Amino acid sequence: MSKRNLPPVPPEIEALVPYKPGKPIEELERELGISGAIKLASNENPLGTSPKAQEAMAKALPGLNRYPDGAGFELRQALAARYGLAQEQIVLGNGSNEIIELLCRAFLRPGDLALAASPSFLMYSKLVQVAGGRLKEVPLKDYRLDLAALAEAIEPSTKLVFVNNPDNPAGTAFSKAEFSEFLTKVPEGVIVVLDEAYIEFASDPEVAQGTDFLDHQVPVVVMRTFSKAYGLAGLRIGFGLGPVEVMDILHRVRQPFNTSILAQAAGTAALADEEFFRKTMEVTWQGLKDFYACFERLGLTYVPSQANFVLVQIGPRASAVADELLRRGVIVRKMASYDLPEFLRVSVGLPQENRRFMDELQAIIGEG
């Protein structure tokens, strides 16, 4: 087949490396010839999906021949009531990933600078690059965001500063006082993007909550998602909260029907399912305690987490240990792509899944 002549591809697009998601459990089982695998690699909700969300989706099925509500009125109304905001302060997204994309599309021009921590969520760099911007990364300090260094890194060309709280992949979080101090150092013309994908799991009451900063003189855009605490990762539904002026710009650049009928219905119902949410927190917090106790028995260093996962230092054998866990049907996340080659990231699962992981890890470490 002859090679087609395409229009020139911009160098920033040509240089992109596609995001590599984890393989589905079914595919891994086929490849390895195993069954009954458990996935503790993607920070998903092990309890499944809110029963109320499932009921809402079932009721919405007959209407799938219609376009969704482009404004997402019911879900935005529910979010406005939950957070005490005007609907004009809320934008819905196809996952919180799309909120990042909308911000980059709206506020970055070729050569503009964005800041983020390193290591951090991989999509910051990719979406900044797609917009033609430059991403400057500031290393974590003791596995925490170095807010002082981020503030010092701001340049005249800086337009966006991404801060995730709790942090992914470390699971650490900064306090309200620390964030308040950071905002005093942010100059005019810069938007602070506070990624709170895991904020619901934070058990420390001192952890900063972005909703407390939406009226700050520095424009703060808070990103949240239904993928984690609410168990709707497969529907891709997230939202941004922020000043009306910023939200107005994001609404101008977003797709008119960017969230589906099912996603909107499920999100609205999940937000009201307090029982499912409470159980999710209980399972997560107990799972973290069990992991900590296991790692301490094995003499492994770990980073105490405010999220639904934990970062554990295995040592030079980390990749080999992850591969052996995989052969035993336990899927965890290697951290080499985050420049943490000696670490694994483990999501909290159901109690029996956590026990299986801990038993297999102990067996592997003991064999080593």
What's a concise summary of this model?
With 368 residues, this protein is an alpha/beta fold. The chain has helices at 11-14, 25-32, 51-60, 73-83, 96-107, 122-130, 147-152, 176-183, 244-253, 261-271, 274-298, 318-327, 351-367, and strands spanning 38-39, 90-93, 113-118, 134-139, 158-164, 191-195, 220-225, 238-241, 301-303, 309-313, 330-331, 333-334, 343-347.
List keywords for this structure.
Aspartate Aminotransferase, domain 2; alpha/beta; seven-stranded mixed β-sheet; 368 residues; 15% strand; 13 helices; 2 domains; single chain; four-stranded antiparallel β-sheet; Aspartate Aminotransferase, domain 1
Structure overview:
Its cofactor is pyridoxal 5'-phosphate. One of its GO terms (biological process) is L-histidine biosynthetic process. It comes from Desulfoferula mesophila. It catalyses: L-histidinol phosphate + 2-oxoglutarate = 3-(imidazol-4-yl)-2-oxopropyl phosphate + L-glutamate. Belongs to the class-II pyridoxal-phosphate-dependent aminotransferase family. Histidinol-phosphate aminotransferase subfamily. With 368 residues, this protein is of the alpha/beta class. The chain folds into two domains: 22-48 and 275-367, Aspartate Aminotransferase, domain 1 (Alpha-Beta Complex); 51-271, Aspartate Aminotransferase, domain 2 (3-Layer(aba) Sandwich), CATH 3.40.640.10. The chain contains 13 helices and 13 strands. It has helices at 11-14, 25-32, 51-60, 73-83, 96-107, 122-130, 147-152, 176-183, 244-253, 261-271, 274-298, 318-327, 351-367, and strands at 38-39, 90-93, 113-118, 134-139, 158-164, 191-195, 220-225, 238-241, 301-303, 309-313, 330-331, 333-334, 343-347. It has a seven-stranded mixed β-sheet with strand order 2-8-7-6-5-3-4, sandwiched between helices. The chain has a four-stranded antiparallel β-sheet with strand order 9-10-13-12, covered by helices on one side. A two-stranded parallel sheet has the order 1-11. The mean pLDDT is 94.
